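Expect chain and fold; see below:
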Amino acid sequence: MSRSQLDTLIHMANQIAINNAHYADAAERIHTHLKKFWARSMKHQIIDYLREDGSQLSPLARQAIEQLAQSQADARPASA
């Protein structure tokens, strides 16, 4: 993934956070939006970015992406 693509994802996540910040359940709303509307590759890329650095994400975007990462981990089938 190019840096410009990652920058776009970071910008999008932060904008979604800004647009939902006034809700009491903002992080959950952002998480739900990302889960529903972002392509699998986009979700993986933003989660990888959060784990590697994440410094350009707003605190609210970071919280939502952490929830997204956890929901994806919970959705994976358990190893036998």
In short: Residues 3-75 form one domain. Residues 6 and 45 are 7 Å apart (CA to CA). The chain is about 75% helix and 0% strand.
